[in-house]
Amino acid sequence: MKWAVRAESWPIRGGFRIARGARDVAEVVVVELHDDGLVGRGECVPYGRYGESIDSVRLELQAGCEAMKRGARTRALAMRAGAARNALDCALWDLEAKRQGKPVWELAGLGMPPCATHTMRTISVDSVEKMQEAAATLRDARVLKIKVDGGRDLERIAAVHEAAPGALLVVDANEAWSTDQLVAWLPSLPELGVAVLEQPLAAEDDAALEGLERSVPICADESFHDRGSFSHVERRYDMVNVKLDKAGGLTEALHCTSEARRLGLRVMVGCMVSTSLAIEPALLLTPSAEYVDLDGPLLLETDRAGALHEEENDLLRPSPSIWGTA
């Protein structure tokens, strides 16, 4: 087997801002596995919040590829959970689909192929006025995710709700709220159209959620990575955001959705800002999810050739030419 690892930059339309900062391009790492004329591909997004960088992920992928012999999938999963393992795991699934002449959904025992699904749309954190303008352009979306930062957040949420009154709102603080802000603002959220509050507190401070009376369900993102996170989150959160880059691949993410259901936790399927090569595997998780947040490719100026998504309808369509089919 031969392999190739490369970094790519994909411009983001209008930029992307959350509580931790802003960026104008999506920096991704792609791994290709070449075997007997077949190619399996996977994509990941290194995330500084978890101590990852383009260089560190490339080194992890090179080491993982060099270590692969027989039992390659087991070796991939022996890597630490994170972006590098995700890219390699997804590339292995893609390669195995081509070897066996079967799509990944069938290899994974899912029973049916992924269907077209609607995704929520994201509004970056900005001034109240600019967020209201952004919401007005997305007023027909079914669900809007609002990024906030602990500033004028109730005003931002109210402005978005006014501009898109028919949309359910998911408020994502990316750990930016204090406990005092959470306690003060939480009761007001339902009347502002908020259906879910995502990661309001820093992961290391979320013990304050235990026993907290809540008016909307609270979803774990930075506090939840893989199956090892359930013991931490099950008493504090009502929902978990399963992302392949955090879980370390499709294999682990499938286990996470199954375990969440067993524990009675609701599921959101999320993503980093990425191309459709990273989104295709995540589409296999959507039947298990109550909320789908996979609009990463819709934020880019251009996507990979072969992508079939309908941005104007917030509709994600599986792209057989990109990943996961024979």
Question: What's the helix and strand layout?
Answer:
Layout: E1 2-18, E2 21-35, E3 38-44, H1 54-67, H2 72-77, H3 83-100, H4 104-107, E4 117-118, E5 121-123, H5 128-137, E6 143-147, H6 153-163, E7 168-172, H7 179-185, E8 194-198, E9 218-220, H8 230-233, E10 239-242, H9 244-247, H10 250-263, E11 266-269, H11 276-282, E12 291-292, E13 315-316
Parallel strand pairs: 5-6, 6-7, 7-8, 8-9, 9-10, 10-11, 11-12
Antiparallel strand pairs: 1-2, 2-3, 4-13
Question: Gist?
Answer:
With 326 residues, the protein is of the alpha/beta class. The chain has helices at residues 54-67, 72-77, 83-100, 104-107, 128-137, 153-163, 179-185, 230-233, 244-247, 250-263, 276-282, and strands at residues 2-18, 21-35, 38-44, 117-118, 121-123, 143-147, 168-172, 194-198, 218-220, 239-242, 266-269, 291-292, 315-316.
Account of the 3D structure:
- The structure is a single chain.
- This protein is an alpha/beta fold.
- It folds into two domains: 2-101, Enolase-like, domain 1; 117-316, Enolase-like C-terminal domain (TIM Barrel, Alpha-Beta Barrel), CATH 3.20.20.120.
- The protein contains eleven helices and 13 strands.
- It has helices spanning 54-67, 72-77, 83-100, 104-107, 128-137, 153-163, 179-185, 230-233, 244-247, 250-263, 276-282; strands at 2-18, 21-35, 38-44, 117-118, 121-123, 143-147, 168-172, 194-198, 218-220, 239-242, 266-269, 291-292, 315-316.
- The strands form three sheets. Strands 5-6-7-8-9-10-11-12 form an eight-stranded parallel beta sheet. The protein has a three-stranded antiparallel beta sheet with strand order 1-2-3.
- Strand 7 (168-172), helix 7 (179-185) and strand 8 form a beta-alpha-beta unit.
- The longest helix is centred in the N-terminal third of the chain and has 18 residues, at 83-100.
- The chain is globular and about 60 Å long.
- The relative contact order is 0.15.
- The mean pLDDT is 95.
